[in-house]
Amino acid sequence: MLPSCRCNPSVKNMPDTNTISIKKEPSWLARKIPGFIFYSNAVLSVVAASQRVHKGIYSTKNKIQSSLSILKSLEYLGVDVKIENQAILSRLKSPCVFVSNHMSVLETFIFPCLIMPYKAYTVVLKRSLMRYPVFKHVLRSLDPIVVDRINPRQDFRTVMEEGLANLKNNISVLIFPQTTRELRFDPKKFNTLGIKLAKRGKVPVIPVAVKTDAWGMGRWAKDFGKFDPSKPVRVSFGEPVHISGNGKSEHRSTVDFIRTKLSDWETKAEIIWLN
Question: Which of 189, 240, 261, 269 is deepest in the core (most CB within 10 A)?
């Protein structure tokens, strides 16, 4: 019951049934103005979603559809997209803590259509995002856990208290342990907040590795950098990590999963480029 398979006939299961691949030849127009097409679609999607939020009719189904429109936009522009091991979510019986690296805005847009068909979830966000025009209404519809990124102790208490309350209500929590979006993964900047929340909530961690630098970061406006359809988009869900002891080994395995995936994807991209 993969949402992309239900809604898009061009999405095909690969020989590895745990991988969904999206790739099609772009049209002439898509090759000429990919950035304009992508950002236009993203803005229209956010505006439409915001209007639904205001009317009180932005349901889970609507959230999935809004997210899926971004995935379809990537397909239309010829971006090579692969989603790995999404099926793990259908087998997971409890809520969980998703722990992901954070490369661009793109993962924020596409996670709902990948996760929500299986798991209700909320996300930990910094307060500055809640002031974005129009987009803030969509973010608020997720009932996020909001932190200030000023007082680490207060942020920790907020995530623990609100995170545990969500987990008890069968709502999973998505955490980006990096303090900000970064193209290069630095394990030293990857905190243990998600591990600690999972331990306290007695739920597993699902490591998530993402490569989403097709949506670049801008020099003047960070959220509106160059869109490069030649860069592949990758999302991989890891196997559940159950926390025991102080969680240090589980943190290392989560970091290693993300680091290994990013390294593999980078190597494969280099091989394709050389060929």
Answer: 261
